[in-house]
Known about the structure:
This protein is α+β, with helices and mostly antiparallel strands. Among the domains are: 21-177 and 281-335, Bira Bifunctional Protein, Domain 2 (BirA Bifunctional Protein, domain 2), CATH 3.30.930.10; 348-436, Rossmann fold, CATH 3.40.50.800. It is built from 15 helices and 16 strands.
Amino acid sequence: xxxxxxxxxxxxxxxxxxxxxxxxxxxxxxxxxxxxxxxxxxxxxxxxxxxxxxxxxxxxxxxxxxxxxxxxxxxxxxxxxxxxxxxxxxxxxxxxxxxxxxxxxxxxxxxxxxxxxxxxxxxxxxxxxxxxxxxxxxxxxxxxxxxxxxxxxxxxxxxxxxxxxxxxxxxxxxxxxxxxxxxxxxxxxxxxxxxxxxxxxxxxxxxxxxxxxxxxxxxxxxxxxxxxxxxxxxxxxxxxxxxxxxxxxxxxxxxxxxxxxxxxxxxxxxxxxxxxxxxxxxxxxxxxxxxxxxxxxxxxxxxxxxxxxxxxxxxxxxxxxxxxxxxxxxxxxxxxxxxxxxxxxxxxxxxxxxxxxxxxxxxxxxxxxxxxxxxxxxxxxxxxxxxxxxxxxxxxxxxxxxxxxxxxxxxxxxxxxxxxxxxxxxxxxxxxxxxxx
Length: 437
């Protein structure tokens, strides 16, 4: 078969490669930006006492059906599910498995499986990794997407826990200089007061159903609260009653205490009575951070989360309280307001001229790296002009020029690629100067 006949294999539709800066002009798909956000998040988690958890990227389908909710869009429409091979390697004969579409249910499964409540009254966990949903691709939304999230699970449902998480998120956003955001909060009630609100919603929506979209008609039958999340029937939704008016005393007190803790921290927020989350396990506090930027198109939510007391019990675990959030890493990258320095850019480029200079450069590179200096060099023999072009392209701050004359004198030219200043230094002086800077 000739080379021209070989079909090129590309990424699956609505997925993408996250590439080093040198290999893509798409600023939203550069790996160093993902690394930067992850490093800021990890620092926040260190300060606030979270520990990392890594769960498998696929789980038994039942986990998401029970944990997320069979009637949610995620479970009913968006999951990647297949039958595992049976005992005799028979396709479709084994267990039903699913690529994780979200990570709260897997974390709770792990909490139960490893009996974490026996080691700590409050497990503070974070995760960073890919999730998978069979969605229609659009700006900022992919079938494989990346999330950073936290889950706090244990005996306490103190609203101060929730406010502390919001405070941590506020620090992350400010550290990343993502400032054009709004925090929206609400209480979605509990099993005690929500049924009464659901019945009221049904009565209010029933005469309007004929004028509402197909999704709302479906949610009317399966998950009435999700009608409030509709982005098409906004005029009708605006006329519907507020759950804030029907909260039980416990939920009302919990939400008021949550707001009080936010106020004490001087964290700005707006109460949105129509705010609900797309998963069945949420109770009481729900929140989202929205951006006013146009960079994300119609999808303006950067992150969201809330309380999910009772999720552990629904998955066979002990009675536990839970609160957490997940942020879309892909969307955060698109929201970064300014260029981010790439840690993979070398500090020094070694420009060698001739075979002996090349051999010396190999050893010098090792010495530089041992003292913590990142460096790069070419492995071909080129002219000084072409080698300096490579040095410019590498974006290194310094270039060390090594030729026959430099080797004979034992002194080497160190060029500052920004100021264009040059110094002649010995090998020891080079190591000391570069290490100091």
